[in-house]
């Protein structure tokens, strides 16, 4: 008869404990997944609303301060579509509900290399298809804003955010980052509400149509419609934000789509007269 503290019994108990714990963790992960997905969706909605300024406009506070019901109400203003960046046209070849930007960027069949030396965002690839969001007052088809997902390298990792444009597609309404690894108090100041507020009204393109919005090195010159203040002590992060905004506005990214959309909006407005 084997002793209770034999090597075999010790290994058996350890194995059983590992199996039980693994099953418990796996079960918890499966059970919590719907809640995690709901929270991820809610977080996305908050960040889009933050970029658009809708929360402040309707409730006078940041989207992070709204309750779930208020967020759902404002989300009624938001619609979405998928865009083929190469053609600048909408596409339904991919299920929009299953689309994941990060997964698309990592797949060789769903992405293309980034080789734009003018606006180096420090990333190897971008998705062929991107999801875009629209702000439309409920009950109308009029587009008030377009929200573009953007990303690019900062100092310690990739910054993921949303760039909101007004209906002229030339003026920035807001910029927010929902994921980054920047240093708190330095590059992490991309989360500072007062810095983010500076983006409202900044021009995305210069008079020749070239992407021109920039994070200035130091305080932005008074009256400069293309610049916001630099992030003190965070030169690399500041440069990264400038590069990613300009890259995604260029013809290598959303540029073709924005040109087509501008023509559509002009035609719509002309027909409404």
Protein described:
The structure is a single chain. The chain is an alpha+beta fold and 273 residues long. The chain has one domain (77-272). 38% of the residues lie in helices and 20% in strands. It is built from seven helices and ten strands. It has helices spanning 7-52, 54-59, 68-75, 101-106, 193-197, 235-249, 255-272, and strands at 78-84, 89-90, 111-113, 125-127, 129-136, 143-153, 158-166, 172-179, 214-215, 227-228. The protein has a six-stranded antiparallel sheet with strand order 2-1-5-6-7-8. A hairpin with a 5-residue loop joins strand 7 (158-166) and strand 8. The model has no long low-confidence stretch (mean pLDDT 89).
Task: List strands and helices in order, with pairings.
Layout: H1 7-52, H2 54-59, H3 68-75, E1 78-84, E2 89-90, H4 101-106, E3 111-113, E4 125-127, E5 129-136, E6 143-153, E7 158-166, E8 172-179, H5 193-197, E9 214-215, E10 227-228, H6 235-249, H7 255-272
Parallel strand pairs: 9-10
Antiparallel strand pairs: 1-2, 1-5, 3-4, 5-6, 6-7, 7-8
Order of helices and strands: HHHEEHEEEEEEHEEHH
Number of domains: 1
Distance between the termini: 95 Å
Q: Quick check: average pLDDT? A: 89
Low-confidence runs of at least 5 consecutive residues: none
Question: How many strands appear in the DSSP assignment?
Answer: 10
Secondary structure class reads alpha+beta
Task: Kindly estimate the percentage of residues that lie in beta strands according to DSSP.
Answer: 15-25%
Strand order of the largest sheet: 2-1-5-6-7-8
Major sheet characteristics: 6 strands, antiparallel
Principal-axis shape equals: globular
> Rg, please?
23 Å
Number of helices: 7
Helix content: 25-40%
């Amino acid at each position: 008869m084997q002793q209770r503290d034999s090597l075999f019994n010790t290994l058996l108990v350890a194995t059983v404990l590992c199996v039980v714990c693994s099953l418990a963790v796996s079960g918890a992960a499966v059970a919590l997944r719907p809640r995690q997905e709901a929270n991820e969706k809610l977080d996305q909605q908050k960040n889009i609303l933050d970029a658009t300024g809708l929360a402040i406009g309707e409730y006078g506070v940041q989207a992070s301060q709204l309750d779930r019901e208020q967020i759902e109400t404002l989300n009624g203003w938001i619609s979405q579509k998928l865009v083929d960046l190469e053609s600048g046209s909408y596409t339904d070849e991919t299920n929009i509900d299953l689309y994941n930007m990060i997964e698309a960027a990592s797949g060789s069949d769903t992405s293309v290399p980034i080789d734009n030396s003018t606006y180096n965002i420090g990333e190897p690839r971008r998705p062929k298809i991107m999801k875009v969001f629209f702000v439309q007052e409920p009950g109308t088809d009029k587009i008030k804003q377009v929200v573009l997902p953007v990303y690019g390298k900062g100092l310690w990792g990739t910054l993921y955010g949303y760039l909101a444009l007004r209906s002229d597609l030339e003026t920035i309404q807001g910029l927010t980052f929902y994921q980054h690894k920047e240093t708190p108090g330095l590059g992490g100041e991309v989360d500072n509400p007062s810095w983010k507020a500076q983006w409202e009204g900044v021009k995305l393109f210069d008079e020749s149509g070239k992407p021109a919005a920039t994070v200035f090195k130091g305080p932005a010159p008074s009256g400069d419609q293309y610049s916001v203040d630099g992030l003190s002590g965070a030169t690399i992060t500041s440069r990264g934000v400038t590069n990613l905004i300009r890259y995604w506005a260029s013809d290598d990214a959303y540029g073709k789509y924005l040109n087509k959309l501008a023509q559509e909006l002009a035609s719509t407005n002309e027909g409404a007269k």
